[in-house]
Amino acid sequence: MALTRVAGQIRIGHVYECDFGRFKKAGSNAVTSDREEADTTAYDYRIPNEMVKRRAAVVIGKHRGLYLVVPVSSTYEGDKKPHKIPEHTGMHVPMGDDFPETQRYEKGKQRWAKCNLVQSIDGGRLTDIYDHGIHKNIPAYKVSEETLLKIRHGVMISMGMGTLVPKAVAAPSVAVEAAEPATREAIEAVVVEAADPVT
Q1: Residue 147 lies in a domain
Q2: If DSSP states are collapsed to H, E and C, what string results for the chain?
Q3: What distance in Å separates the CA atoms of residue 141 and residue 128, rounded to the nearest whole number?
Q4: Which of 13, 58, 84, 148 could form a disulfide with 79 if both were Cys (CB 3.0 to 4.6 A apart)?
Q5: Cα–Cα distances in Å, from 138 out to 26, 73, 79, 89, 135?
Q6: CATH number of the domain residue 137 falls in
Q7: Considering the domain boundaries, does residue 27 fall inside one?
């Protein structure tokens, strides 16, 4: 296990920054974050479609130096079919204001916990979030119990275990109520589809 780089213990339900690594640049020994430049056969590095770069992540579990983390991203993922939009299915959980505020992570910007990108990492990849506005690390931010539960449910849904998740969680009420009748019916059925996904 690598040395941890956080103040105190790494705690479940807290937000840290995680260095997921980089791609190997095709034709050289350099690394890159651009998937278009990535060597897709360099298995000692990250390869598309794997998570790369340093980004915020929520710790949802731990065991003997390994930590289960869900990365957070400000990139929205849509779909032509409303009931397949990851936010509607419960796989991408909106963080809202339940997120640390720093110069880099501006308040009010929409972010999602990408539960389908959950992965196990060594604790050495985690660091406390550095705020360039005050030039120091900030204490690890703890998300609410409600947000943590939604993220854990999102992981279950992404694993095809949606039938074990309460329907109200798997199909957010806001998305359901705002949808047209036909779309609403499709969203409400997403728990069944998550258990047996159709591509």
Answers
A1: yes
A2: CCCCECCCCCCCCEEEEEECCCEEECCCCCEECCHHHECCCCCCCECCCCCCCEEEEEEEEEECCEEEEEEEECCCCCCCCHHHCHHHHCCEEECCCCCCCCCCCCCCCCCEEEHHHCEEEEHHHEECCEECCCCEECCCEECCHHHHHHHHHHHHHHCCCHHHCCHHHHCCHHHHHHCCHHHHHHHHCHHHHHHCCCC
A3: 9
A4: 84
A5: 37, 19, 36, 33, 9
A6: 2.30.30.110
A7: no
Beta-bridged to residue 16, according to DSSP, are: 57
C-alpha to C-alpha distance for 187 and 154, rounded to whole angstroms: 15
| pTM (whole model) above 0.85 | no
Q: Is residue 139 part of a domain?
A: yes
Section 160-168 average pLDDT? 85
Alpha-carbon dihedral sign for residues 38, 44, 46, 49: positive
- Six token digits for residue 136: 């120091």
- Return d(Cα 80, Cα 136) in angstroms, integer: 43
The three-point CA angle 160-163-165 to 5° equals: 100
Q: Which domain holds residue 65?
A: 14-20+51-195
Tell me how many domains the chain contains. 1
Query: How many Å is the Cα radius of gyration of the chain?
Result: 18
What's the one-letter identity of residue 81?
K
Does 38 reside within a domain?
A: no
